[in-house]
Amino acid sequence: MEVRPLVDGEDVLAAEVFTEGPCEDPGYLLLPDAPLTAGTEPHEVRLAEAGCTKGCCGALYVTVRRDGDHVIWSEWRNPGENVVGLPEFRFDAEEYQAEVERAVADRSWEWPARTVARLLELDLRERSDWLARWECELGGVSAWLWEPGQIDLFLFHPGRSAIRESRPWLQFRLVLDVSSDAPEVQARRLAEQLVASDPRQTGEVCGGSPEYARQLSHPWPQRRRG
Fold it and tell me: According to the lineage, what is the superkingdom (predicted)?
């Protein structure tokens, strides 16, 4: 899923402005505190990223700011290119904000598992004491179109900061089944089940190293030989 910005009905990123990867996921751009919301302080928003990551083939950024009765998109930037061939855009501030709010409120693009994943992540981020108890940090909750019957929950132990600081770390993946029940009911039920136990015991290790696992006193999974 991707958010493609239209200006006067035209896809501004379609004319080979950025072809290295998709536009950003609505889960990032269309939040209640939407990154696209304009304030008096300019801020940069990433609209697209290369499929191989921005550090390899770049990403597309725009600076968003409020200027009186207008919202301005300017200072286009791609770390992988010297020049981005897009002009400055000016929008009526009230119309712009109304459109951002409309897009944030529109969840018609979600399929059931994606809705459960979103609601579950919101719930779990309010339960920081659960993760602190097991020295874990929530990485995210994902749902994929090709796996409509499940969602994937990712955790870091002891946290993402360990990666930056070159300390031992592990990543865990928990696969959760999705049913036909109402997404709100499922998310609440899954949250209650998760907080009742140590997620490191029910999840599978999907990141880190055998040495890190040894230092953290956690077994490293045995990989099957093909």
Answer: Bacteria
